[in-house]
Amino acid sequence: MVRRSVDLRGAHAIVTGGSSGIGLETARQLAGRGATVSLIARGESRLEAAADDLRHGGATVQTRAVDVSEADALRSAIGELADAAGPCEVLVACAGVARPGRFTELSDEVFREMMEIDYFGTLTAMRAVVPGMIARGRGSVVAVSSAVALIGLFGYSAYTPAKYAVRGLMESLRAELKPHGVHAAIVYPLDTDTPQYVEEQQYKPAELQALNGGFRLLSPQEVAKAILTGIDRRRFAICPSPAANAMRVFAGLAGPVLNFSWDRAIAKVHSANTPPQKDRYLP
Ligand SMILES: NC(=O)c1ccc[n+]([C@@H]2O[C@H](COP(=O)([O-])OP(=O)(O)OC[C@H]3O[C@@H](n4cnc5c(N)ncnc54)[C@H](OP(=O)(O)O)[C@@H]3O)[C@@H](O)[C@H]2O)c1
To answer: Any idea where the domains of the chain sit in the sequence?
Structure first.
């Protein structure tokens, strides 16, 4: 059976976090399908370098340097981009930061920052484009969450809730947008070889490092390809690897098994470093 692809020629696609990693590769593949792409990120020089890179490949690109956690600025930027390149037909909300660390060692600011950028940054972008998509009766909104939104993981107590919040948002949006002909999707990548992945290694507690061995590191191109396929097939849950898909399908069932094996790995790291702890509350 020949599968049909969405015709993206001339469509305006906005990618937050489009200057690097998964966002940049997604923008490249959208542009390769003929979309006009708009990239949003904070750092101007990386943004311009990304845009030049895409333009060399023949893409039509515009950029805005904005922090997605600044709602008014993000709304204005999306409005200006739409004025220049037409209404947004595809939004990929990919801007995000991940800061691992032990719960007791992370600062309050980190918990807030994850929510402000990963969740509210996604929410604001969605709210800026969804009304127009409903009015036109078409479009795709895609939020890049994480496999940590399928099962919580040691060392991600700040990042995981923000990505779960994105999941809750997208599950609600899926149901609300479907009757209007608008496609909503969520992406659940496992570890992917990007600058963020490299940067977060320095903060990973030893226990988290011990859990990471089992899964193959994905490339941002693979994740981007899964996103494009998800848009073509109007999939809700986009799992860029079979392991993420298995976690999604079996999360409820496999959770206790995964937790059992992860708890053992964590206990091994602990027993090497700390005296055993007693299972009681009284001193
Ligand atoms: N890499 C992984 O292993 C992995 C796994 C699962 C999920 N994810 C998710 O995938 C998404 C992309 O991550 P990546 O790994 O591709 O990281 P990346 O290469 O570091 O790219 C992150 C992008 O987001 C932008 N960004 C970050 N904070 C921003 C803010 N406040 N406002 C606007 N733009 C902002 C960055 O540019 P500026 O810093 O210049 O703003 C950059 O363009 C994130 O949501 C991440 O949580 C990644």
So the answer is: 12-272
pLDDT in the model for residue 109: 98
Q: Position 225: which residue type? A: K
Instruction: Check if CATH label 3.40.50.720 holds for domain 12-272.
Output: yes
Nearest CA to ligand 1 atom 40: 43
Q: Which long-range contacts (CB under 8 A, 24 or more apart) does 5-10 make?
A: 5/33, 5/232, 6/140, 6/231, 6/232, 7/34, 8/33, 8/34, 8/35, 8/89, 8/90, 9/33, 9/34, 9/35, 10/34, 10/35, 10/36, 10/86
Q: Which of 15, 20, 110, 163 to mutate to test the pocket of ligand 1 (most atoms within 8 A of CB)?
A: 20
Distance (Å, rounded) from C-alpha 188 to C-alpha 183? 17
C-alpha span between 96 and 166 (Å, rounded)? 11
Enumerate residues lining ligand 1, CB below 6 A: 16-17, 19-23, 41-43, 46, 67-69, 94-98, 117, 121, 144, 146, 189, 191-192, 194-197, 220
- Active-site positions? 145, 159, 163
Strand segments (E) across the chain: 12-16, 36-41, 61-65, 88-93, 140-144, 183-187, 237-238
pTM score, two decimals?
0.93
Q: What is the pLDDT of residues 84-135, one digit of tens each?
A: 999 999 999 999 999 999 999 999 999 999 999 999 999 999 999 999 999 9
- pLDDT grade for 50, boundaries at 50, 70 and 90: very high
SS3 89: strand
How sure is the predictor about 46, in pLDDT bands with cuts at 50, 70 and 90? very high
